[in-house]
Amino acid sequence: MRGPCARSEENEELEEEAAAAAARPAGVSEAEEGSHTDSDSDLETEGTHGLGELGGDTLYLESCRTHSVVPISCFLHQGSAPELNLRHRGLGPQGAQALASSLASNPCIRRLDLRDNGLCGAGAEALAAALSKSSSICDVDLSENQLGAAGAQALCAALAGNSAVQKIQLSGNGLEEQAAQHLAELLLDHTGLKSLDLSYNELNDQAGEMLGPALAENTGLTELNISWNHLRGPGAVAFARGLEANIFLKVLDISYNGFGDPGASAVGEALKANNVLEELNMSNNRISAVGALSLGLGLRVNQTLRVLVVSRNPMRSEGCFGLLKSVQDNPAPALELLDFSDIQVNMEFDDLASSVKVIIPGLCIKTGARRAEYKKEFLPVFRLSLPVPAP
Fold first, then answer.
1. Rounded distance between C-alpha atoms, residue 240 and residue 254, angstroms
2. What are 249-269's pLDDT values in tens digits?
């Protein structure tokens, strides 16, 4: 089977024929097409000033002919809609190149969704050129497109010079440490970026060591999702130290990594100094009871964190108890949700939770795991019926 970045010659020929047919109005013969092509070229050379829907469609159709791809009907019918949703369309690199030429001249599109289109590095480079010129697009989803380091480099370079883009999703693109350097530069240069999704990639220790210092210096990002990566060891600690110095981030998802106890301890130190973060997801990070107690040192003094999720960590009831005790000892806690889902707790934890609820009635403590019930088993007692002696 061919990958999404390869295209057979047979398909190209079929797509070229379909593109030409789609561009030709109904009832117009091939012999008459030349005059229409000339008029289309005239519209294209006139620029985008005063260009209506027909002109925009003409630019796109001409580009589809150039790149030998079939035009996408929903883009032709886009009109002045603020969102362009082309996810799962199989655009490929050539389809992205055909689309890019029309995006920069469309002042209506604010959200661009191209998730799962096999764009690869070449498609990302074409879109990067369009995004660098667009002043209207502020929300971009390029998840699941196999962008790789080359695609990330092109996009980050383009976005660094475009303050209009405030939200970008790059989930599931196979991004590794080679891409991390470009992402770090984006965090340093793009002060208008508010939300960044890097989940389901392959960012490892080296990536964490590059992203941590960039996060410390970033000014503007309020939401970061870096879940389902490989941040662990020194990389996790370096990333957590970046959180300690950051003064803008409000929502952070680092779940399904490998922070472990050293990473949890570093996050605990960060929570002592950070007075901005409001939501933190650390579920499934290999945090034991020791790491939970270190994390609790930050909860004892932090006064901004509203949501903490630490579910599916091997901290046992002892770790849950330690975290909850830290919240109880905090003189001015802001916590509204403490999530221990899928961690088994005992009656001692339940007693503490009841006490904390009296002090902080607005706190929701979630466990969601069945408690272990230990009951002493007694052997059945058999009563023997002895015959009553005759009088």
1. 10
2. 999 999 999 999 999 999 999
Cα 308–309–313 angle (5° rounding)? 130
Please give the model's pTM, rounded to 2 decimal places.
0.81
Non-local (6+) Cβ contacts of 354 within 8 A are none
CA-closest candidate to residue 276, choices 355, 358, 218, 190: 218
**Can you tell me which residue has the tokens 């221990």?**
340
Contact 225, 198 (CB under 8 A): yes
Kindly give, in sequence order, each residue whose CB lies less than 8 Å from that of residue 4, ignoring residues fewer than 6 positions away.
Answer: 90, 92, 117, 118, 120, 146
Distance (Å, rounded) from C-alpha 47 to C-alpha 323? 62
What are the structural domain ranges in the chain?
91-366
Task: Please tell me the least confidently modeled range out of 31-35, 102-106, 129-133, 260-264.
Answer: 31-35
Written out in words, the top-level CATH class of the domain with range 91-366 is: alpha beta
